[in-house]
Amino acid sequence: IKDLLSQSEALRLKLTGLLEKDVEAYTGYSVAAKMPRGTDEEKAERATAMQAALKTATDVPLSIAEAAVDVMDLCRPAAEKGNKWAVSDAGVAVLMAEAALRSAALNVLINLGSLKDEEFVADRRAKLEGLLEGKGAMRDEIYDYVVSKL
User: Fold this and answer.
1) What is the DSSP annotation of 48-115?
2) Single pTM value for the model
3) Interval 60-86: pLDDT, tens
């Protein structure tokens, strides 16, 4: 349990930092979107800046999705080894972690739709699909285990 607590605290800190990075990424995109576009040169500079900002705005929620999967991975052992009077917390955690995963996935997908770098898009889409694969079943399995202990 001490090991699970240590891992979960590290993930909490990581996710808190990623929240701040997500705000920065959105701010970067907003700044790029407001760049002047009166001349062809300004339009080109703005387009380049927006594409760079979108890549950052894609990678941050992808990192959040990865951390959410790590949280999900802790839920089964927490349910099995934790205090029997707090087993419901593991069920809540898996539900919240999956919600975070899917929320982050939506942010990744919306940004991928505006990117022109096909290689980047394909790479990030493949990573996201790998993160999402099987997580609904994992959520259900952990949730059902928790319910069986109540």
Assistant:
1) HHHHHHHHHHHHHHHHHHHHHHHHHHHHHHHHHHS-GGGHHHHHHHHHHHHHHHHHHHHHHHHHHTT-
2) 0.93
3) 999 999 999 999 999 999 999 988 888
